[in-house]
Amino acid sequence: DQQVKQNSPSLSVQEGRISILNCDYTNSMFDYFLWYKKYPAEGPTFLISISSIKDKNEDGRFTVFLNKSAKHLSLHIVPSQPGDSAVYFCAASEGDSNYQLIWGAGTKLIIKP
Amino acid sequence: KAGVTQTPRYLIKTRGQQVTLSCSPISGHRSVSWYQQTPGQGLQFLFEYFSETQRNKGNFPGRFSGRQFSNSRSEMNVSTLELGDSALYLCASTDSGQQFFGPGTRLTVL
Questions:
Q1: Which pLDDT tens digit goes with each residue over A28-64?
Q2: Residue A83 DSSP one-character state
Q3: How far is A22 from chain B (nearest CA, A)?
Q4: Are the beta carbons of A103 and B40 separated by less than 8 Å?
């Protein structure tokens, strides 16, 4: 029973356009959400996070949106660049001090030149 | 600061054998977590150690165990390996709520 779901295994986007990666969760106790990016042969690296008291968090080209009623979050990358090609993982936890993150299966983003 | 290091990077074992993986966290980080990553499953939490004590544990059988030393280095052991244990094993050290991952150990069980 996956508590965090990323239903798109892969996504292909033209360079310069917007990339939108989606994540759904089932546990209403989750209140802290993170996005990680992973290149081949490397471990995941932290990208951006959002607490459930907010509905949007922005960091440069990356914006995360949280819709608590729909139990849905999304990561927007604008504009998409070739270096953004990677696997993106969504993760959630109950409280930001809980290190036991629950992870989605990942979405492979491919940026086409 | 040096990042999280994991050794070995690649490992091939046969069913029934046991394996020990090592993780050295970032200097000063006292929390180390272990994850198993398999295709289509994301990262599954194994356990977390803090100051040599197991603080959290995921839903894995007892064949998976770990420990942490006084210098915060951690080891993970898997006994009686099964084909389904083939995966990328990731270690992360934590500081201020943010996890920093190592490159992982790719374990293949034949």
A1: 999 899 999 999 888 999 999 999 999 999 999 999 9
A2: G
A3: 15
A4: no
